[in-house]
Every structure is written in structure tokens, then in C-alpha cells.
Amino acid sequence: MLGSVFETCQRGLPVEIREETFSVSNNIISRMVLGRRYFDKEEGNKNKIRLEELKEMFEELFVLNGVFNIEDFIPWLGWLDLQGYVGRMKKLSERLDVFLEEVVEEHDRRRKGVENYVAKDMMDVLLKQADDPQLNLSRIKVKAFTLDIIAGGTETSATLVEWGLSELLKKPEMLERATKELDRVVGRERWVEEKDMGGLEYVQWIVKETMRLHPVAPLLVPHLSTQRCRIAGYDIPANTRVFVNVWSIGRDDQSWENPNEFRPERFKGSTVDVMGRDYELLPFGSGRRMCPGHSLGHKVVEIALANLIHGFQWKLPDGQSPKDLHMGEIFGLSASRSYPLVAMARPRLPSHLYNFNSSQP
Ligand code: HEM
């Protein structure tokens, strides 16, 4: 990501932040789950799918997961598909399946005939489990599980880093404070590493504040009550579909002072965290069904944002002032920016640090 941003600014071009953040989070998750990068920015690599195409499919997936589909509530209207969502879902599912089939087949070929094959990635592990008939893990379940993890781990982190940088571009004094902290803790001779994060208090506050104002799943994922219960005076019968509005909870003036303002310092001396224990801040949900990737996702967002701030001086393109930067969001399962963030970057570290070896699989 850093090498790609560097190349773009060397050419004097504005950086499309989302392209970069999507690419980095997707590469991380794809190498963990599928064993290699399956996606490429460039066209024409026959072993890889165009990243742009995947991004477009995931955006559609998140929009369709969040839409209000009339037939979910009035099932007898189902055959009409009044809003056309079901048709879109089927089309998308076919497109995603082509990719997933290819991945499963590649993994199957690799394992075939190899005695005591040692799993190299998550899909290998799943396919090995699927060999056991007692587990009832069909091929379709392996594909569904894989899709959940890739989609859950890509869109979310990418969206948050884009929001974080947007907020900082709106408040240049905060960007400056974060840059100074990075210079003090990391210095200008290297990139930020995971072990540095403990000392980067202000950057950590920025990430928490971004998650408070821009929870990527504003209504979490729909839940179902298993038993009858009463919350804040409301009776909720068993088997009720429940939405938890973490977007509103994060902006509730009973819990937060000046809730609509982006103010990372509010976390100074506060023990409120994002791990599901503090109900006023629930970007990953809470309890049994909270995000299983929360620890990874949190780290990816922190390290990606920290390095973007550390490695580059950022400003909005000519003619755009911070107050003009539009902060509207799209409503879907995830709340991303309605207008992608575009910004100008200038390298601020010694030039040899931008020489990246991109030979990783
Ligand atoms: C900063 C990044 C991330 C954020 C903000 C985030 C947020 C969330 C939220 C809010 C939920 C729903 C929880 C609920 O309804 O209570 C969720 C579920 C889920 N997330 Fe994440 N997530 C992130 C990263 C990841 C990563 C990296 C992975 C995979 C490695 C992942 C995989 C999943 C899966 C599979 C679920 C569904 C869990 C279930 O239904 O039991 N997420 N995530």
C-alpha cells in the first residue's frame, strides 16, 4: 500500500484512498485465508482476479445485506421481487461462486494424492475438515465460510482507515499532532510496526474515535432473541429480529460529550475500549456473536492508518478546503463514505524506505 501511494504521488497524481486501503486489507486476509494474493490491481494476470471487480462485488454484497427488502416482511409478495433485490442477489452469488470454485479447485489440486498433507492456509484447514463425513461440512459451506471471512475482513478495515484519514484531513491540527507523536515514538528512519502501537496513544485514540463516529456496521448484523426479555421498558418476545443501533449509541449525548464532534482526546484517561465490554462503544458488537476478527481488524486499521500518516504529508486536492470535505455515508450493512476520499500525498521519510519488494505471493 505504501509503495503504491508513493508511486502515485511521484507521478503527481491524487491518491484514491479507498483503492489503497481495500487492496491492503484484502491482501492481508487473502494471504491468511487463501494462502496467496488472488487479486491484482492490474488487468491481464491470469492467476488473479481484478481487485476492482472484487471491490465492486463486495460493495454490492454489503449494500444488498443492508437493504430493506419488502418481501422479508410480507413474504407472499416474494415472487414479485418488487425492488429487484433478489435478482441482484442471485446474480452476485453466481459471480462470487465462479471465484470461490476456482479457489477450492486450486486447493484441491494441491492436496490431491499428497500423503499427510500439511494445511498451509485457512481453506486447506476447512477442506481437511470437510473430508470427515461426520462433520457435515459440505463444499458449499466451505465456500460460504470463506466468503464470510474475506468479506468481513476486507470491507470493514478498508472503510475505517478511509474514515480515519478523512476526519484528520478535516482537522489538520490533529493530523499534525499524530505526525509529531509518530516522529517522537518511531522516528523518521523506519516504518511503524505492530510493537510500536502501545506507545502511540494519540493514534490509538484516533482509531477509537473513528470507530465511535463511523461504526462500519451501524446496525450490527441482525440478531434474533432466543428468549423473551425486557429492555428499557420494552418487551421483546422470543424469536424477534433485533437490530442494535451502535451508530446512535456512539452518538448518544447521555454517554458522550459533544457526540457529533470528532475529538480523539475524549479517550484521554478513559478506560472505554472497543472490545465489547463497554456498551457505549460497540464497533465490533458484543457477546457470543461479536466479530471473531476484532483483534486482527483493530490491528490492521491501526497499523495501516499509522503508516499512512507517518509516511506521507497529506492534503486535500487544490481548491478543496477541509470544511468542504463531504462526510456523507452510504446506508448498507456497512456505512462507507458516499464520496470516495481523494487526497494529495508527499513522502516525508528518507527515499530508500519507499523501495518495497513486492515479490510476496
Ligand atoms: C476493523 C475491522 C472490523 C470491524 C469493525 C468488524 C465489525 C464486525 C461487526 C460489527 C460484526 C457483527 C457483530 C454483531 O452482530 O454483534 C462482525 C461480524 C463478523 N466479522 Fe467482523 N469486523 C472487522 C474485521 C473482521 C475481520 C478481520 C474478520 C475476519 C478475519 C471478520 C469476520 C467477521 C465474521 C465472520 C463475522 C460474523 C460473525 C457471526 O455472525 O458470528 N471481521 N464484524
Structural class estimated from helices and strands: mainly alpha
Approximately what portion of the residues adopt beta-strand conformation?
Answer: 5-15%
CATH H-level homologous superfamily name of the domain at 2-189 and 293-354: Cytochrome P450
Give the terminus-to-terminus CA distance.
15 Å
Chain oligomer state: single chain
The sequence of SSEs as H and E is HEHEEHHHHHHHEEEEHHEE
Mean pLDDT across every amino acid position: 92
Instruction: Quote the CATH topology of the domain at 2-189 and 293-354.
Output: Cytochrome p450
Over all CA atoms, what is the radius of gyration?
Answer: 22 Å
Total strands: the figure is 9
CATH architecture of the domain at 2-189 and 293-354: Orthogonal Bundle
Helix content: 40-55%
**Looking across the biggest beta sheet, what order are the strands in?**
1-9-8
Ligands bound here?
protoporphyrin IX containing FE
CATH top level class name of the domain at 2-189 and 293-354: Mainly Alpha
Q: What is the general shape?
A: globular
Separate helix tally: 11
User: Low-confidence parts, pLDDT < 50 over ≥5 residues?
Assistant: none
Largest sheet: 3 strands, antiparallel
Layout of strands and helices, then pairs:
Blueprint: H1 2-10, E1 15-16, H2 17-33, E2 39-40, E3 49-50, H3 51-66, H4 70-73, H5 85-111, H6 122-130, H7 139-170, H8 172-185, H9 201-213, E4 223-224, E5 229-231, E6 234-236, E7 241-242, H10 246-249, H11 294-311, E8 312-315, E9 342-347
Parallel strand pairs: 2-3
Antiparallel strand pairs: 1-9, 4-7, 5-6, 8-9
This protein binds protoporphyrin IX containing FE.
Residues 148-149, 152-153, 156-157, 160, 216-217, 220-221, 283-285, 289-293, 296-298, 301 line the site of protoporphyrin IX containing FE.
